[in-house]
Specification:
The chain has 365 residues and is mostly helical. It contains 13 helices and no strands.
C-alpha cells in the first residue's frame, strides 16, 4: 500500500505540473485569445473578494479606486498560484522518489523552486527533479517579466487614443460634443481621417483585449474615462455623421462602425458576455426617439447642418446603432464603466447600484 501510495502521488504530482505549465503557456505565451480554466478560476476568485470589498462603496469614485486594483492584483495572484502548483507537484514527486517524510519532501521542493539550495536530496533521480524544478521556476518568472511590458505597452497605446478623444469629445465623452467641436474647429472635413485611425484602434483593441485578457479590466488613469465609453462615443459619432449630419457620405465612418462592433463582440464572446449576435436593422435599441431629437436640436443650435428628414435620419441611425447597442451596454456593465451618455448611463448593471453618484460633466466648452 505504501509503495502504491507513492506511485499515485508521483502520478498526481506530474499531472499537476503539466496542468500548471499548460495554463502558464496558454496565458503568457500563446498569442491568441483562449480560455484557460485555471486562470479564469483565479480571476473569478479574486473578483469575488473584490465584490465583498465593493459592497460598502456608495459612489462611483470609491468603486473606481477599488476596481483599479483588481487587474494588477490578479496578475500577481496568477503567477503565485502557478508557483504554488509547481511547488506541490514537485513535492509529491520528491516524496514518491525518495520516500522521505512529507515535510522533508516539501523542503526539497521549496529549496529547488526558489534556487535556495538549503535542502537537496543526494540520490541521482531526485537531483534531476531539483534541476527541473529550478528551471521551471525561473522560466515562470521570466514569462511574467516579459508579459507585463507587452501588456502595458498595449495599455499605453489604448489610453493615448482615449485621452485624445477627451480633447475632441469632452470628459465624459459625448458624440454630440464631438460633432459640435469638429464643426466649430473646422476639422469636420477631416472626420474620414479620424475614423480611419479609430478603425485601426478597434482592430488592435480586439487583438489585445482577447490575447491579454486582463487588459480589459485595466482602468484609465482618469476615473471619468474608459475604453468602453470611448468606443461608444466614436461609434455614435460615426452613426450620427452618416445618418443625421447633412454632409457628404463618409465611408470611413461605416467601416469604423463595423470594425467597432466586431471588436466589441469578440471581446464579449471571449468573456461569455451575452448579447444579440444578429440584430435586425429595425430591432430595438436603448436610445429612444426623444433622445435622438434632443441631440439633433443641439447640433442644429450649434450650427451643424442637419438633414431635414428627421424620420429617415432616425431610421438610419437606429439601423447603425442596433449593431453595437446591446454589446456596448453589456461590456459597460461588465467592467463597471464610468458615466457616459448613451453607453454606461443605461447599462443594465448600473440599475443594481442606485447609490452611485453620476459625475458632473467637467468640460462643456
Amino acid at each position: 500500500m505504501y509503495v502504491a501510495a507513492r506511485i499515485l502521488a508521483g502520478i498526481a504530482g506530474a499531472c499537476l505540473i503539466v496542468f500548471v505549465l499548460d495554463a502558464a503557456i496558454r496565458t503568457f505565451v500563446l498569442p491568441r485569445g483562449v480560455i484557460v480554466m485555471l486562470t479564469r478560476a483565479i480571476a473569478r476568485a479574486v473578483r469575488a473578494v473584490f465584490g465583498v470589498v465593493l459592497r460598502p462603496a456608495d459612489t462611483y469614485e470609491s468603486r473606481d479606486r477599488i476596481l483599479a486594483l483588481y487587474a494588477p492584483i490578479s496578475l500577481l495572484v496568477i503567477p503565485a498560484t502557478f508557483l504554488m502548483g509547481i511547488y506541490l507537484g514537485f513535492a509529491a514527486l520528491f516524496w514518491a522518489c525518495t520516500g522521505a517524510r512529507a515535510g522533508v519532501a516539501m523542503r526539497y521542493s521549496g529549496s529547488a523552486l526558489f534556487t535556495l539550495g538549503f535542502a537537496t536530496p543526494t540520490t541521482s533521480p531526485p537531483t534531476l527533479l531539483v534541476y527541473a524544478e529550478a528551471g521551471i521556476g525561473l522560466a515562470l518568472l521570466a514569462l511574467l517579466i516579459s508579459y507585463l511590458p507587452t501588456m502595458y505597452a498595449a495599455f499605453s497605446r489604448r489610453e493615448v487614443a482615449v485621452s485624445r478623444l477627451s480633447v475632441r469629445a469632452g470628459t465624459p465623452p459625448s458624440a454630440s460634443d464631438f460633432l459640435i467641436r469638429a464643426h466649430r474647429a473646422g476639422f469636420d472635413q477631416r472626420l474620414s481621417e479620424l475614423f480611419e485611425q479609430w478603425e485601426v484602434w478597434f482592430i488592435e483593441l480586439e487583438e489585445t483585449h482577447t490575447s491579454f485578457a486582463f487588459l480589459t479590466f485595466f482602468r484609465s488613469p482618469n476615473p471619468n474615462r474608459s475604453w468602453v465609453t470611448a468606443s461608444g462615443t466614436v461609434l455614435d459619432t460615426a452613426a450620427l455623421q452618416i445618418s443625421l449630419v447633412d454632409a457628404p457620405y463618409v465611408a470611413a465612418g461605416a467601416v469604423t462602425i463595423r470594425s467597432g462592433f466586431l471588436a466589441l463582440r469578440a471581446i464579449a464572446t471571449f468573456f461569455g458576455i451575452p448579447f444579440d449576435p444578429d440584430p435586425t436593422p429595425d430591432g430595438p435599441i436603448s436610445i429612444d426617439r426623444d433622445e435622438f431629437e434632443a441631440v439633433a436640436d443641439k447640433l442644429a443650435a450649434a450650427g451643424v447642418p442637419i438633414k431635414t428628414d428627421r424620420d429617415a435620419a432616425w431610421i438610419a441611425f437606429a439601423g447603425w446603432r442596433v449593431n453595437y447597442d446591446s454589446v456596448l451596454l453589456a461590456i459597460a456593465g461588465f467592467i463597471d464603466a464610468p458615466y457616459a451618455e448613451w453607453s454606461s448611463d443605461r447599462s443594465p448593471v448600473r440599475a443594481h447600484h442606485p447609490p452611485l453618484r453620476t459625475p458632473r460633466r467637467r468640460d462643456n466648452r
